[in-house]
Every structure is written in structure tokens, then in C-alpha cells.
Amino acid sequence: SHVLVTAGNCSQINLWSLHLTPCEESNIESDSIFQRKPTVLAPSAGNGSGGLEYRCSLGRDNPAVNCVKFSPDGLHLAVGCDGTNLQLFSVPWHKRGGGNGRHFWSTLTQENSGELNYRVVNTGEGVTDVSWSSDGQRLFVASIDHSVCLVQRVGQEDWTVVYRSSEHLHYVQGVAYDPLGVYLASMSNDRSVRIYPRKANAKTLKKVLKPIKQQ
Question: GO biological process: what's one of them (predicted)?
């Protein structure tokens, strides 16, 4: 089954198993997102009819949770909250053999959730958004304190900040990581978008203050 993570103003981060019928599974794999009809998911009845099934909660006495995002490889879950630094939950190293690490989430229960590796990265208090690199080795982080930073995996279980910028004049609302891994983008409440090269120097590559006119 697929795994869905949800969070909000409460301190809990909830994980759900998403059971899809064969027809729904086929639609996800083949249809364009613009062709799909929205589906209302009910709690799973356990009879193969599809639906949502609650798995467990990852509670760390968090304030309001602003964002939760799995890495593309399915091995890590990034959590951004008000008033705290970036939190990372990762599949245990010994559970990643054979490329099956991402399936660990679908076996997670309240009893074994303590097996997850947990890290706090000093990114700046009040994380508003995160964006993963396509290989799951880095993530771009936005904060309320006007800053953005690039976090990179070091070794098996550690993460460290390799770049930080505080050029925005207001809190940063969103960030995006170029799928090709060349550029990073940040959007702030100061009404600007800034574009950075991944191997950034001290200054922004481009600053966008208004839409570019089409030729």
C-alpha cells in the first residue's frame, strides 16, 4: 500500500495507509493529472475496496506543523514547524537493503515507530517549507526568520547546513529545488523571488521583483 502523511495545527504527524483498488492504481500510473477526477477516500473497510487506514502518529510535542514531505527515494520524512528547527525522520539503515527502504513506512505502527532515526538540523526557527533534491540527498529549507538554507546528507545518518542566505526582507513562504539540481528558488513575503545556483556564492544569481513580459 501507499503511505500518506498529514499534519496541521496539532502536534501530531499522522501516517496513513492508502489502499487503492486496481482501477485507481492504474489511473495513478497512466493518467495525466489533468484528466483525473477527484476521489473522496473513506476509511478502509478492510475488504479490498480501497480507502485510508490510520497507521500511527509521530509526536514530538511540536507546535503547528507547516509542512511534511517525503524524500523522492522514500527514505526520509522532513517536518517543518513553527518555532522549531527542521526535523528529519529516516528509515533505519539496516532496513534499507535491496532498495526496499521506502516500504518500511507501510509496516510502521505506534509500537515500532521508535525505530525511526530522528534528527534535528539547525536551520533557523520556524520552518515554513522544504523542497527535496531529486536524489534525496539535499533539501532546501525556508524559515520565518527571512532565511533559506541548503541541508545536505553527511555519512549514513547525519545532516548538515552547507549554505545559508538571509537576503530576503521578510519571511520566506516557499522554496523549490530544480529537478536537474542546478538551481534553487525562494519566494518571500517581501514580494520577491530569488534564484540561486546550487553551488552558491554569497549572492543571489537573480532577483525577480515582477513578472517578465512575454516577447
Answer: DNA replication-dependent chromatin assembly
Whose cell is 537493503? That residue is 97
Among 47, 56, 49, CA closest to 17: 56
Give, rounded to a whole angstrom, the gap between the first and last alpha carbons of the chain.
47
Question: How many CA within 13 A on the CB side of residue 95?
Answer: 18
Mean pLDDT of 95-110: 83
189 and 179 Cβ atoms separated by less than 8 Å: no
Radius of gyration in angstroms for the set of CA atoms belonging to the chain, rounded to a whole number? 19
pTM of the model: 0.82
- Tally helices (H) and strands (E) across the chain: 1, 15
Angle at 32 between CA 26 and CA 37, to 5 degrees: 75
**What is the rounded distance in angstroms from the CA atom of residue 162 to the CA atom of residue 13?**
27
Rounded percentage of the chain residues whose pLDDT exceeds 70: 78
Task: Give the CA count within 13 Å in the CB-facing half-sphere of 152.
Answer: 10
Strand partners, 132: 139
How far apart are the C-alpha atoms of 98 and 38, rounded to whole Å? Answer: 35
Report whether 49 contacts 76 (CB < 8 A).
Answer: no
Residue type, 89: F
Grid cell, residue 52, equals: 485510508
> Residue 32 pLDDT > 70, yes or no?
no
Q: Which domains does the chain have, with CATH numbers?
A: 62-208 (2.130.10.10)
Q: Are 169 and 209 a contacting pair, CB within 8 Å?
A: no
